[in-house]
Each structure stands twice: as C-alpha cells, then as structure tokens.
C-alpha cells in the first residue's frame, strides 16, 4: 500500500475546515468577500486535486500534486500581505499615524493592528535561532567528550547565532516608521514575509550544520564538505534574507555602503571549501563567527549614517540626493519630475523657489504635478 494516503486524507480535511471558515467570512464580512472568494476557490481546487491523487494511488503523482497545492497556497497566502491601501504621508514623506501607531490610509482601509504579525514573525526567527544551539547541546550529548575543541565549538556556535540575532534586530522598525507591512511600494510586505520564511529555514539548517560538524568530530579530522557546505551556505542565505528584510522597510534605503557586506558573505561560503586552512570543525565555526561579527561592526558604523532614510531623522537641509528621490517617489510624482530633481540634495531643494521648480521641469510636465503644481515649491520645502 502507498504510505502517503493517510497524509492526503488529513491534508484534505484541513482544507475543508478552512473552506468552512472562509465561507463564514464571505457571508458575514462584506469587505472580506474578495479575499474569502480567492481562498474558497483555492481550497476547493486543492481538495479536488488531493482526492484525485487518492484515487490514482501513485507516489510520484502524490508528490507532484502536493507541490502544486502547497505552492499555490503559499502564493495566495503571501500575496495576502500585499499592502492594498495607500498610506497617508506627511509633507516630509513619512507615514501619518494616530496616537496608537496605526498608519492612516488616504485611499482604502489600513489594518488596525499589524503588531501581532510583527511579533509572530520575530518569534519564528528567535525560536529557530535558539533551536540551532539547543539541538547542538541536546542532540550532540551522545558524542560529547571532555576536550577543549568540543567546548569551543559550542561556545563559538552560540556567539555566531548571538550576532546573527543582533543583525536581525537591527533590521526591525516601528510600523509608523515605514514598516514593510504598511509599505505600498516594492519591495514591501510580500518580500518581508517571504524572506522571513526563507530565513527561518536557513537558521534551522545552520543548526543542522553545527550538529553535523559536532557529530563528525570523533570520526573525521576534517568534516566532509557536505557538512561544511550546509553550515556555510545556510549562514550566507540567512544573512542575505536579513538584508532583504531590512530593505523591504521604507525606513531603510539602498546605499553603496551595503556592498561592503558582500566580501564577508563570500568568505563565509568560501570557508566550506578551505579544508586545508580550516581543518578542525571549530576552526570553521570560528571563521564564520568572525565574519558575522564583521557584518555587525559594519552595521554599527554605517547603518544609521548611510542606510536609514534621513526623512525619518533630519529636516530637508540634511537630506542627500537619494533621500530627495525617495521622497519624490513616496509622494508619487511622475517619473519625469523624479528625473528632473534626482541630482539635487536637500540644501539645493530647500533653496529653490517656485520659479526654479518650474524651470527645472519639461514644458509637458510643467503644470501637471498630479494636481498640485502651485504647491510644488512648498511641498519640496517639507
């Protein structure tokens, strides 16, 4: 008999319960009709596919159908985090929020409380980070020996994951400071959610890598490249996800300083192949730990100064040219307008008069700044 049939039945039952729940949403909440209908159609189609798979009773068909069903559900679920309202922004380009920190909507309806989502995704990261060390200590107790290299590996792994958590915490921001869940641009909420999912798996595989290195110590002088690769590649992927989570927020902007992190990420990956220089398992973990700390130092030295949008920290006179472009995009000016002022920094914009603004624009766009041409100079002054 095919062992996957019980899983098919259980999965089909779970989708049936979800269909019932979304039918209730569709019937009782008028503003959720479009959202609920997408889910009802998806879950019904998934149930039908799974029932067909049960009748065919073939392992390959089961795997293919499960991939199709899971991919479709993940796509629709992640797309649910797409910001479907237009946030109301101040003249300075920051989001308007009430006294509770809820971002106001200019068009559409803003969510009343996104904090539970932020908290839960943060908990996923913290749990997987902690499990990486816990699995090493608990699961590796059978091969642990009273030798310095065993103790050293555990300590170095702990320090590595500690600074990974520091990198993640540096990527957080408040909802009213341009959090990705209220960012209607790209990248935004969808990128933030996807990167959290990949990050959680990458952190778990970091724990797997630590454990495999630990388990190989009694039998191998040099751990197999496969074990080393799991740790190094997972760590590099986790770092890349943390950086993408950071960029998804409106508060953080791209700066060429961000490229300083690429050598550290590349060297972490290279450690998997440096079997002559990094023979012992603890040496490899030490190598990875050092480059993670370097990334933390880069954050401490450069993040606030170069990668945080100054519209959240300074007045117009302190803006760089990239902050001006970011402001123009946030205020949804036409691309021609953005290009006309893309080479000007904050002090230059502050010194401009209305006639200077008009002369900088092409004739075609001179009097069509989305219905506010007479207020252009005032808006640029913030």
Your description of this structure?
This protein is mostly helical and 382 residues long. It has helices spanning 5-28, 33-56, 59-79, 115-139, 148-169, 189-216, 225-248, 261-270, 281-307, 321-330, 335-341, 346-350, 354-360, 376-381; strands spanning 86-87, 105-107. It has a two-stranded antiparallel sheet.
Low-confidence stretches: 1-5, 366-382
Distance between the termini: 71 Å
Major beta sheet, strand line-up: 1-2
Structural class call reads: mainly alpha
The largest pleated sheet is described as:
2 strands, antiparallel
Number of E-type strands:
2
Name the helicity range: 55-70%
Strand content: under 5%
Write the layout of secondary structure elements.
Layout (H helix, E strand, L loop, with lengths): L4 H24 L4 H24 L2 H21 L6 E2 L17 E3 L7 H25 L8 H22 L19 H28 L8 H24 L12 H10 L10 H27 L13 H10 L4 H7 L4 H5 L3 H7 L15 H6 L1
Please tag this protein with its features:
2 strands; mainly alpha; flat; disordered C terminus
Tell me briefly what this model is.
With 382 residues, the chain is an all-alpha fold.
């Amino acid at each position: 008999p095919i062992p996957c049939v019980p899983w098919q039945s259980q999965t089909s039952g779970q989708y049936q319960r979800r269909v019932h729940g979304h039918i209730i949403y569709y019937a009782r909440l008028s503003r959720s009709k479009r959202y609920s209908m997408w889910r009802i159609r998806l879950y019904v189609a998934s149930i039908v596919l799974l029932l067909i798979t049960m009748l065919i009773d073939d392992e390959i068909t089961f795997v293919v159908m499960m991939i199709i069903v899971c991919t479709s559900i993940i796509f629709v679920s992640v797309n649910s985090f797409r910001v479907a309202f237009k946030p109301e922004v101040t003249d300075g380009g920051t989001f308007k929020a009430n006294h509770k920190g809820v971002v106001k909507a200019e068009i559409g309806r803003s969510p009343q409380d996104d904090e539970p989502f932020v908290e839960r995704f943060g908990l996923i990261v913290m749990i997987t980070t902690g499990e990486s060390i816990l699995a090493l200590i608990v699961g590796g107790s059978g091969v642990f020996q009273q030798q310095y290299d065993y103790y050293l590996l555990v300590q170095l792994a702990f320090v590595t994951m500690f600074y990974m958590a520091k990198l993640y915490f540096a990527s957080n921001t408040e909802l009213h400071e341009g959090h990705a869940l209220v960012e209607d641009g790209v990248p935004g909420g969808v990128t933030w959610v996807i990167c959290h999912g990949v990050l959680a798996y990458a952190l778990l595989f970091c724990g797997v890598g630590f454990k495999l290195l630990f388990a190989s110590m009694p039998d191998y002088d040099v751990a197999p490249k496969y074990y080393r690769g799991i740790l190094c590649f997972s760590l590099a992927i986790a770092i890349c996800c943390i950086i993408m989570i950071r960029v998804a927020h409106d508060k953080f902007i791209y700066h060429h300083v961000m490229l300083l992190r690429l050598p550290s990420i590349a060297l972490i990956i290279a450690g998997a192949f440096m079997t002559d220089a990094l023979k012992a398992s603890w040496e490899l973990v030490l190598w990875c730990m050092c480059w993670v700390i370097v990334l933390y130092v880069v954050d401490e030295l450069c993040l606030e100064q170069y990668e945080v949008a100054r519209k959240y920290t300074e007045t117009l006179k302190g803006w760089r040219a990239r902050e001006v472009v970011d402001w123009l995009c946030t205020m949804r000016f036409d691309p021609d307008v953005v290009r006309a002022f893309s080479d000007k920094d904050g002090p230059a914009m502050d010194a401009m008069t209305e006639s200077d603004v008009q002369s900088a624009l092409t004739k075609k766009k001179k009097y069509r700044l989305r219905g506010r041409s007479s207020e252009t100079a005032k808006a640029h002054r913030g």
